[in-house]
Amino acid sequence: MNESFEYNQTHNPLNPRVSMATIASIMGLISIALILSVYFSIILGGIAITLALLSRDSAGKLYPQAKRAIFFGLIGFVGGYALMITSFVTVFTDPEAHKMVNQYSQAISGESFDDMLEELTGGLGISIDLPEMK
Predict the structure, then answer these.
(1) In a 10 Å sphere around its CB, with 0-12 CB exposed, 13-18 middle and 19+ buried, how is residue 107 labelled?
(2) Which DSSP category does 94 fall into?
(3) Longest Cα pair distance anywhere in the chain, in angstroms?
(4) What's the CA gap between 106 and 115, in Å, rounded?
(5) In this structure, is the dihedral angle defined by the CA atoms of residues 27, 29, 33 and 35, taken in order, positive or negative?
(6) Measured between alpha carbons, how far is residue 28 from residues 19, 37, 39, 65, 110 in Å?
(7) How far apart are CA 129 and CA 114, in angstroms?
(8) Could you read off the pLDDT tens digit of each residue along the chain, which spans 134 residues?
(9) Distance (Å, rounded) from C-alpha 27 to C-alpha 51?
(10) Which of 21, 22, 49, 130 shows the greatest Cβ crowding within 10 Å of its Cβ?
(11) What is the DSSP string of 71-124?
């Protein structure tokens, strides 16, 4: 008698591709949970998407776990970048936020954010218009 144990490939824990898709899905969920720590969500979201794409079966089809991983990873990845861009725009356009960043920078490193930015851009010949402080 010849038995086949490949009746349910999408939930077979012995198949390494299914395990990779499951791990990718978990990493995607973690990237959503860590979306406020911008860099972790971007890194974990990218890893989740990569693992999900690598877990395709021999026919090129994605397992359901891999589809979820791509969805979750994209949310973490795009959400992290959106939060990072929003933060930069806020610092460079809102005078109150810019003042807070200057104060934090002064307290932590002893040099204001404006001084550090001037030092960084001065050598490159770049000019950045900062918001007027009140």
Answers:
(1) exposed
(2) -
(3) 85
(4) 10
(5) positive
(6) 14, 14, 14, 10, 38
(7) 11
(8) 455 555 556 666 677 888 899 999 999 999 999 999 989 999 999 999 999 999 988 788 888 899 999 999 999 999 999 999 999 999 888 889 989 999 999 999 999 888 888 888 877 777 777 766 65
(9) 9
(10) 21
(11) HHHHHHHHHHHHHHHHHHHHHHH-HHHHHHHHHHHHHHHSS-HHHHHHHHHHTT
Q: Residue 17 is encoded by which pair of tokens?
A: 């591709």
Contacts of 86 (CB under 8 A, 6+ apart): none
Q: Which residue has the tokens 């809102």?
A: 94
Other C-beta atoms closer than 10 Å to the C-beta of 8 total 8
Q: What is the DSSP letter of 130?
A: P
Tokens of 55: 């877990």
